[in-house]
Amino acid sequence: MRSSGFVVFIFWLLLQGESFLASGDREIYLPQELSIEDQCSEYCFSVVKLFFDHFIRSKVASDANGDLKNKIYLLETQLKNKDEEIKLKNQQIADKDEQIKREQFEAKINSSEAEIIKLNATIEKNELKSSRIIDLETQIKEYQLQLNNKTEDIKAFTVRIKLLETETNKSRDELISTKEEIEKCHAKIKDQEVEIKHGQDQLAIKEGLLKAFESTVREKESQFKNLTSETELLRGKYEASSCLPFVNSTNVHSIRLFDTDPFIVHCCSNVSGSGWTLIQRRVNANENFNRSWTDYKMGFGDLRENFFLGLEKIHRMTLLQPHELYIQLQDVNGSTRYARYDDFKIGSEEEAYELISLGKYSGTAGDSLTKFQLNMKFSTLDRDNDANVKRNCAKMFGGGWWFSACGRSHLNGNYYKDGTCEVRDGIIWATWKDYDFTISLTFSQMMIRPKTL
Ligand SMILES: [Ca+2]
User: What's the gap in Å between 347 CA and the centre of ligand 1?
Assistant: First the structure.
């Protein structure tokens, strides 16, 4: 550094000296194409030249050194960059390692968890097996208990079997004895069979005689029937078969149908003309109308008060000729109404006294028969012929009637003096009372009359 400073100082002196020469009185001309050596040959000493040489060499060396330094600096910079890259790569490698380790660790954890789940499943299975084993042991104990009981039973049965064997042996002896007696009986039976055969032969002869006798009897019966029919025909001409002959009478009379004994009827001629035969009447609660099939078939009650004439008589009366039906009704307030039908007929007992025909309706009470009671069979508490598939209407409401399921009328229901009943169980004629089935009538009479026109 000191020599460099010195060189600079010398160079400065030279420059000052050049300026000094130029600024003096004498103008020195220095041609531009002269080299330093030429210039120096004029005013420099050989020593100074040495310094110049040294300075030039130093400068060259210094320039070379500067280049080197620049190269070194570039290399150092590159080296630093490479170091940075290496550090970055190392960091990345370290991160990757870390990641790989973490993934391996997670894989191990997952694997361990799977193992734990498997172990837990195995443990649960073993626990179930243990539970099952305990159950089985309990069952085995129960079976052993049952086995012991059965063994006891078997012992008891063995004793019982021995007793039965003893009894069987005794029975066998008795059986042998009985068999011997049976054989004796067989022998007796054979003897009796011979006797029976003889009796049968005799019987056959007697049966032949009997058949001949029966044939004679039938012949006589036929003759008797013919005579009876002729007698009936003759009697019919002179005996009343309805109330028609009792003109204007309202009283009881005897009538007789073609094939019946005479019987008493109540004739009515003060309601709607002459000659009606009463077949039903309700005036008070003195008679029980909740009766059996047989009672309704044969009839019951008092002809002068409450009664039902009987289905069999009504059937026979309406069988041979057309009849009118007249129904007279009265409520608790004293109001009266009527319903009239021009072709009334009921079937036989085999037909359950079905209401076969009513004909045309007329009247003031409304028609409470045609729509629901026509073509219905008669039902009583002990004979359910109605159209109600679940119940017996007669049993529900009392009395007998041509119930459907169960219909709009029922004149044989219970008698309620105050005119009010439980729904449907009184004397009902719904069309008159606007279908109020709690109104029970306090009077009714049904009467029939042969049609004369
Ligand atoms: Ca029924």
Answer: 19
pLDDT of the residue at 9: 52
Residue with tokens 């070194």: 72
Beta bridge partners of 346: 355
Query: 442 — phi, psi (to 5°)?
Result: -110, 0
Residue with the bigger pLDDT between 115 and 238: it is 115
* pLDDT given for residue 40 in this prediction: 56
CA of 80 to the centre of ligand 1 (A): 119
Q: Rounded to the nearest whole angstrom, what is the distance from the C-alpha of residue 405 to the centroid of ligand 1?
A: 7
Q: How far apart are CA 19 and CA 14, in angstroms?
A: 9
CA 62 – CA 58 distance, rounded (Å): 6
Lowest mean pLDDT among 100-109, 284-293, 313-322: 100-109
Mean pLDDT of 377-406: 96
In DSSP terms, which residues pair with 25 in a beta bridge? none
CA 379 to ligand 1 center in whole angstroms: 9
Residue 400 CA, ligand 1 centroid: distance in Å: 13
Ramachandran category for residue 84: left, alpha or beta (phi over 0 → left; psi -120 to 50 → alpha): alpha
Q: Ligand 1 centroid vs 31 CA: distance in angstroms?
A: 163
Mapped onto helix, strand or coil, the DSSP state of residue 343 is strand
* Token couple for 195: 């006797």
- Alpha-carbon gap, residue 62 to 51, rounded angstroms: 15
pLDDT at 409: 97
Give the distance (Å) from ligand 1 centre to CA of residue 389: 5
CA of 404 to the centre of ligand 1 (A): 8
Q: Which two tokens stand for residue 155?
A: 């012992």
Whole-number average pLDDT of the chain: 84
CB atoms within 10 A of CB 319: 15
Ramachandran class of 168: left when φ > 0, alpha when ψ lies in -120 to 50, beta otherwise: alpha
- Decide: residue 219, CB within 10 A, 0-12 exposed, 13-18 middle, 19+ buried: exposed
**Cut 0.70: pTM above it:** no
Q: How far is the CA of 417 from the centre of ligand 1 (A)?
A: 29
